[in-house]
Amino acid sequence: MIDSNVKPLPRDIADLLQSAPRPEMPAGFEAKLLTRIQASLEVPVPTRRGEASSASASPGAETSAALSKMGSWGIPISIAALTVGVGSGILVGRATAPEPVPVIAEATPPPVSPARPETPPPPAADPQEQREPVKSEPPSRKTETKRQADMAGSTRDVSLADERALIEIARTALAKRQTGKALETLQAHAEKFSTGQLVEERESLWVQALVNAGEKAQALKKAEAFRQRFPDSMLLPAVDAALTAP
Amino acid sequence: MMQGLDINQLYGTELPYVYSFLYRLGCRNTELEDLAHDVFVTAMRRSSTYDPSRPVRPWLLGIAFRVVADARRRPSAQRERLEVPSEDVAYEGEDADERLAQRDRRALIDEALTSLDADRRAVFVMYELEGIPAAEIAEAMGTPVATTYSRLRVGREEFTAAVRRIQLRRGER
């Protein structure tokens, strides 16, 4: 019950807020952040069933395992792996990604910690060094490979952005209990991107939407299909939670 | 499981909401990633304070609000916040117009939100954009319900006025 002193929003403002999509996470954000959180919490990185978790695994292997667990959840893995890279190894996309492109990970600076101490400015460069001409090198094979991967990635990113837009509309509708709109949007996604990169996320949202719509039987059926199709999904807990919600 | 909360479940279900909340509080880029990290790490470390009979989202967004407030109080905060250039994406395809319109609406909301102070902005975003009831916002932010309603009332007025100003400037009204 809202306080009577709070005036309702004008209709057009309410409509504006209703129709605004959620901000989109950049590609690779989820996996990169998860890796950082798990490192901070010292949580063992999840592995696929049957694989032993090795304490001596390399950072690259840990990232790869985390990415596998993340599934296609909003990530064009074969490209995102590059951005996630913790500076080691070659990361290859998951099985469902279209033709994974092997990409040579480049060394990236570690993420900036919010609690990092103040650091003094770097000392002025030696004037002798400044006069040293910069040597230009012809494009290497590595650079060419990366350029080709970028081109392939940009095409996939456009499609992913289209998919994500629909998923975000559905997610927002679900959060606002606009179940009908959520189901319609999920149906639209299914028609347009039947084998898209965000199928896993769509199906998990679909279960939640069906539960909200009171279609428990359909939700159970959908959840079972989800479990069969994505047995290692990180979204399984969300699906289970939706089914057990009061 | 860690004291009733599982990081994978929490992360899998709540990251989009935490991301949106931080974004709408004005966080961007590296700062946003750092703060999202802090939110989940703080949540797991304080998981004993979570009441499993209550919805998790208001509790988590309450943590997010405090994490942002703490970060903004740090002397280095202003230097770390970088302005993000506006999106310059070419939209193509049959739904290009709709996506362009979505981008404009989101930009309008983002700009209007900047006219609200931090407390009102958090209440407004939680109530209007995340659909969280005022009583749960009050609990999450540790404030009386009356204060939450007061912030919502002023927040609505300021947000509406800001949207009108922006629309006028854009020539939409």
Descriptive overview:
The complex is a heterodimer of chains A (246) and B (173). Chain A is an all-alpha fold. Chain A is built from ten helices and two strands. Chain A has a two-stranded antiparallel sheet with strand order 1-2. Residues 45-139 of chain A have low confidence and may be disordered. Chain B is mainly alpha-helical. Chain B contains eight helices and no strands. Chains A and B meet through α1, α2, α6 and α10 of A and α1, α2, α5 and α8 of B.
Please outline what is shown here.
The complex is a heterodimer of chains A (246) and B (173). Chain A has ten helices and two strands.
Shape of chain B: globular
Report Rg of chain A: 23 Å
- Give a quick account of the main beta sheet of chain B: strands, pairing sense, barrel closure: none
End-to-end gap of chain B: 53 Å
Blueprint (SSEs and pairs):
The complex is a heterodimer of chains A (246) and B (173).
Chain A: H1 11-19, H2 29-41, H3 59-70, H4 77-84, E1 90-91, E2 103-104, H5 127-131, H6 141-175, H7 179-192, H8 199-212, H9 216-229, H10 236-244
Antiparallel strand pairs in A: 1-2
Helix pairs in contact in A: 2-3, 6-7, 6-8, 7-8, 8-9, 8-10, 9-10
Chain B: H1 7-24, H2 29-45, H3 56-73, H4 77-80, H5 96-113, H6 118-129, H7 134-141, H8 145-170
